[in-house]
Write a structure and sequence with these properties.
single chain; 585 residues; alpha+beta; five-stranded antiparallel beta sheet; five-stranded mixed beta sheet; 63% helix
Length: 585
């Protein structure tokens, strides 16, 4: 990725120059080998020439993969594959030493193909099965190849590699190599099938071209000599078919690249230069990181205000537990503070440190976007808080209306009926009892009315202030309740006193109803610029703001004043509610 405002970095230019030199050298080698084979004038010279031609296909695909993602090993693996094809072709030259080298390494292209298929797309062997299979492939190609030239004098010029002609050992070694090779190829096919089965639909679309073709290629290697004769194919035709299939692996790899499975990786230095010269919006930043890391599915999430959770670019909570099996997350820190994380596809990027390095380069931009996401989240929380306050007010008015309708109104209607009946009493003997009952009813209605008024606005709070009102509240608690007041002298702003009172009242009510507590404690402390309120019980714990409308309503009232509302309630450890309200000194 060339950054805006400048050319490629020196690292990128050096890499491009090196790749160009490798490509030029490979083209020269391939051309020389093909020319040598053409001059031999044998019937199957085209078969010999297919080895350097296949190596050229591997070389071209490997150099392009290396250019796209310098930090990935797929490119170097394919270049090594090209080298193995060129070396194998040496067995058909006229120089004895070169022929011997080609004979010794005759089956290494098969091992490289196995390595490539297991390593795609991350460039690393992700499982123990893959590692053992790849090691087994090289053992088959290098170690089990030894009997083929050690006990066959005709395999090398003048028998220079042979120790004797042992037909029995030669046949045993050949069948051992074929059997072990078949196991390696079947294991490779099984791993590829399993990866396709467990991949997501998006991943499957990228992996399918290479894996499907790779399964065909690896199975044709051990099965070709067994099935070829029954299909009427000569040995030359079977070998030619196998070479064409193996040479087509890079073509399948190119198809996977075109489908988005191997996006070019820009160097970290280029990413840094781009960030310095561009306005990195969240969308552009994610796209730049995706290009740098070679994973188009990269997602940037941001740390919440308390650093314990993550939010997306819109400020919505990001659930990390919902990440799939192949989605991993790397934290990004600025200084010692976590500011966000990068979510990536672990089947594409196997090196978490590479992701962390790119994230650290983009940390300032991520922190800027985090503040934007936090602002959006705060705005959304404010809107929700306002809506809940309106709902709470509506519920309070509905409750008052219900109490007046079902309670006080009914009592007054009954008192009116009693008064009417009292007026009709003619006998003086019944009049005192009826008047007494009427007086008791009137006292009850008045008491009910006082309770409703007290619930709306306690008289002690209006007349004597916060401390007196909470003392009165504590005295009426059915559980032993301790009150500790520090430095609360004089009257506080009315909104602060009302909020503080209702915080204590709701917290004590919840403790009595739900906490199964034995004792309660209320603390009030007036600091220079804030009022600190604490309510603690020794009950069962487990209280949360999401558990009901009571605590959430209190949090909304506190938030509306710019205060801070925290609750600690471990299961079995009681509940501690702490509220800080800003107020004048």
């Amino acid at each position: 990725m060339a950054h805006r405002g400048g050319g490629r970095s020196s690292l990128a230019r050096a890499l491009m120059m090196s790749l160009a030199l490798i490509g030029a050298f490979g083209a020269v080698v391939a051309g020389v080998e093909i020319a040598l084979f053409a001059e031999q004038r044998v019937a199957a010279w085209w078969l010999l020439a297919s080895f350097p031609a296949g190596g050229s296909v591997y070389l071209a695909a490997g150099l392009e993969a290396w250019r796209r993602r310098p930090s990935n090993r797929i490119g170097p693996i394919m270049v090594l594959g090209a080298l193995s094809w060129f070396v194998v072709a040496l067995a058909n030259t006229g120089t004895p030493v070169l022929v011997a080298v080609g004979v010794v390494l005759a089956t290494t292209p098969l091992a490289v193909v196995v390595w490539l298929l297991h390593a795609f797309p991350s460039g690393r062997l992700r499982s123990r099965t893959s590692r053992l299979t790849v090691v087994g492939g090289f053992v088959v190609s290098l170690v089990l190849q030894v009997p083929a030239y050690l006990f066959d004098p005709g395999a090398s010029p003048g028998g220079m590699l042979s120790v004797g002609h042992r037909v029995d050992l030669l046949h045993a070694g050949t069948w051992l190599q074929r059997g072990a090779g078949m196991v390696v190829m079947l294991m490779t096919a099984g791993v590829l099938v399993d990866r396709l089965r467990t991949a997501t639909p998006g991943q499957r679309g990228v992996l399918l071209p290479l894996y499907a073709y790779g399964i065909l290629a690896v199975l044709a290697t051990p099965l070709g000599p067994l099935l070829g004769p029954s299909a009427g194919l000569s040995v030359v035709q079977v070998v030619g078919f196998q070479i064409v299939l193996l040479a087509g692996v890079p073509v399948a790899f190119a198809a996977a690249m075109l489908r988005g499975g191997f996006a070019r990786t820009a160097e970290i230095q280029e990413l840094s230069a781009w960030l310095a010269s561009s306005a990195a919006t969240p969308e552009l930043l994610a796209d730049a990181l995706g290009r740098t890391l070679g994973d188009a599915s990269v997602q940037v999430v941001y740390a919440s205000r308390d650093g314990r959770a993550f939010v997306d670019g819109d400020g919505a909570t990001f659930d990390t537990s919902a990440l799939g099996e192949h989605r991993h997350l790397v934290d990004i820190e600025l200084g010692s503070r976590r500011i966000g994380a990068i979510v990536y596809d672990a089947t594409v990027i196997d090196d978490a440190e590479l992701v962390r390095g790119a994230g650290q380069v983009a940390a300032l931009a991520i922190d800027h976007d985090r503040l934007t996401a936090e602002l959006r989240a705060s705005h959304a929380d404010l809107q929700q808080s306002r809506a809940r306050l309106v709902e709470a007010g509506d519920r309070a008015r509905q409750r008052v209306a219900q109490d007046l309708h079902d309670g006080l109104q009914v009592e007054l209607v009954l008192l009116a009926v009693e008064a009417q009946q009292l007026a009709r009493i003619g006998g003086a003997a019944d009049l005192p009892d009826a008047a007494t009952r009427l007086r008791v009813g009137i006292d009850g209605a008045a008491r009910h009315l006082r309770e409703i008024v007290h619930a709306l606005m306690p008289a002690a709070l209006v007349e004597r202030g916060l401390t007196a009102a909470i003392e009165d509240l504590v005295d009426r608690m059915p559980l032993p309740t301790r009150l500790a007041v520090a430095a609360v002298d004089g009257r506080l702003p009315a909104t602060v006193e009302r909020t503080a009172y209702f915080v204590v009242a709701e917290a004590l009510t919840n403790a009595v109803k739900h906490a199964a507590a034995d004792t309660l404690t209320v603390t009030l402390q007036h600091a220079p610029t804030r009022l600190v309120i604490g309510v603690t019980d020794d009950g069962v714990g487990g209280a949360t703001q999401e558990g009901g409308v009571g605590l959430r309503g209190l949090a909304d009232r506190v938030d509306a004043l710019g205060g801070r509302f925290t609750i600690e309630s471990p299961a079995g450890g009681g509940t501690h509610l702490l509220v800080e309200l800003p107020c004048g000194s």
